[in-house]
Amino acid sequence: MPHPVLIVGAGPTGLTAAYELARQGVPVRLIEKTASPATTSRAIAVQARTLEMLAQRGLADTLVARGVQTRIAQFYGEGAPLFRLDFDHLESRFPYILFVSQVETETVLREACAALGVETEWNTELVAIARESHDGQARPTAVLRGPGGTLEVLRPDWVIASGGAHSLIRRTLNLPFEGKSVGQGFVLGDQRVSGALAPEELHIFSSSDGFLGMFPLGGGRFRLIASDVADSEQPNLETLQQVFDARAHLPATLHDLSWSSRFAINSRMVGTLRVGRFLLGGDAAHIHSPAGGQGMNTGMQDMMNLGWKLTRVIEGRAPESLLDSYEAERLPVIRDLLHGTEALTANMASTSPVRRMLIDHISPYLGSRDLVQEKVAARMGQIAIGYEGGPLTDGSHARGTIAPGTRLPDPLLEVARDGAWHPAHAQDLVDPSGFVLLRAGDGPAPESPFAKSLKLRPAPEHAEAFAQVFGRDGAAVLVRPDGYVALSAPLTDAASAVAAYAEAHFAS
């Protein structure tokens, strides 16, 4: 039996890593230096792509029931509406941002881990790491300090750094955390709001006084985030009300403040996600502006990319070089995320008269266009993320089919099972633990130990959406465990294409 994978940090990233590995039978140890779960809400947005992937694991419904489904983001400038972003433009069964406390997100993940026998080891801190030679290979050695100060030497096969922005692993490995501080100070407050704010909409105010965001938390509560507040004290209700009144033209009263804080924004990332048997993800690898609600989602998706790959390596079903694809695929996503959130923060928080004029005059025109709405919603919802041109994609694909590296869309279709046709959505056919070959059209089913084969046909009145994924001539689409397309091929070539793909990327 392999030694457990050591996961350092039990926030959303670490919990996702533990769940992804444990559900596939990999032993893990999940340590957290704090004494108990967090009680204050940090990240509050769960995006459509994260919900899609959680749905494939049976976890989405539980989380959605605990949050607020926000389908409209209303943007204002200098006391007047600029445009409304409608998340119905998202081509997903989750056409909204789910605003839910990170406390709840962690609880759902922690309960899922516990059902698999994985419990968080609280009050347990990583105090030292080293790489030592074992069996001719450089393997990790970790020193843990547990409750009461007891020390333990652990030699895991792999270590995942998910312990936040001050990661000891990242610092010990001497990995530069490159980037910058945004410079502005921000305030945050969670409180009830009475007045003219629509209770389930996101409200963004951008003016010469600075940025103000009001994020719905349900039950009449909102999170307020604002830039450029000079007061050095922890913000109280009076301060937050003054900020709101100065920047929002809508009449509202703030009351019942439950938490407030000040924070600064850093935008930084590492240049590598793997050093031997040390793997980094989440805030240990990238931190950035909270603009757009992207950070927690990115960390969780880091682990959904890594989990199935590391499992195959541990089980001897793939070479260690497969893990290089984790870095190759996720670093461009992270880099794009940093650039996007930096630009969004700079624009929305700007007090420059020139930039204010451009925002106030151009935004209403651009924001009203359907194409812009679709692209912005897809980017915020992270369904636009893909790995085209990455190391695990075959460049060519069957005529008219979806390109390798892209997220599998979710058209309604019918799947053959037990001699009958059954309605399904395409994403329901993704296997988070294995590859699936989706076949559209007539022809014999390719036999392959590498992928489960399913025969499909369009659902009534959904032929066009089906054809956009599978073409009009019949094709086979190979889908990865994380729901991204690996390759597509004509049905007649499917068996040989899958065999060649498996040999190229997974032969150990």
Structure description:
There is one protein chain. With 508 residues, this protein is of the alpha+beta class. The chain is 29% helix and 31% strand. The protein has 12 helices and 26 strands. The protein has an 8-stranded mixed sheet. Strands 8-2-1-12-19-18 form a 6-stranded mixed sheet. A 6-stranded mixed sheet has the order 22-21-24-23-25-26. It starts with a strand and ends with a helix. The model has no long low-confidence stretch (mean pLDDT 91). Its cofactor is FAD. Residues 4-338 form the FAD-binding domain. It holds the Pfam family FAD_binding_3. This is FAD-dependent oxidoreductase.
What is the gist of this entry?
This protein has 508 residues and is of the alpha+beta class. Helix content is 29%, strand content 31%. A hairpin with a 2-residue loop joins strand 9 and strand 10.
